[in-house]
């Protein structure tokens, strides 16, 4: 697994959203994108992180950002997650983990002292030209959005 670095081209993809629509990264060229990978919809940490993005979406949008969440969940589960927690940004399904792997967001990780293969909670800031500005791996669900907005200079 290779990790992306600032300056790398963000791997293009087209994934299905919670409503079974195709969403392509390239359709956001000209805008900055916050692309985050999370292990599983409706789990405590992933819910906390998604709700933090939801609660900060206004400030992020004002600064020209688009937020996209990606997990290995099927669209039906993403719909449940979106509706249960009133999530207002696209949730994308990558059941085959191809996009996770392209971003280095799937691989060997340690969880509760055990080494295993799984989703690595990661966030990428992609600039308007499709280049990686920030590549953050092994982020914590709690407090991550606050730290990210601070690093991006968003109050």
UniProtKB/TrEMBL annotation:
UniProt superkingdom: Bacteria
Ranges for domain Thioredoxin: 4-155
Keyword Zinc among record annotations: no
Residues forming the catalytic site: 46 (cysteine sulfenic acid (-soh) intermediate)
Keyword line: Antioxidant, Disulfide bond, Oxidoreductase, Peroxidase, Redox-active center
Catalysed reactions listed for this entry: a hydroperoxide + [thioredoxin]-dithiol = an alcohol + [thioredoxin]-disulfide + H2O
InterPro entries named in the record: AhpC/TSA (IPR000866), Peroxiredoxin_AhpC-typ (IPR024706), Peroxiredoxin_BCP/PrxQ (IPR050924), Thioredoxin-like_sf (IPR036249), Thioredoxin_domain (IPR013766)
Family statement: Belongs to the peroxiredoxin family. BCP/PrxQ subfamily.
Protein name: thioredoxin-dependent peroxiredoxin
Native organism: Microbispora catharanthi
Taxon lineage: Bacteria, Bacillati, Actinomycetota, Actinomycetes, Streptosporangiales
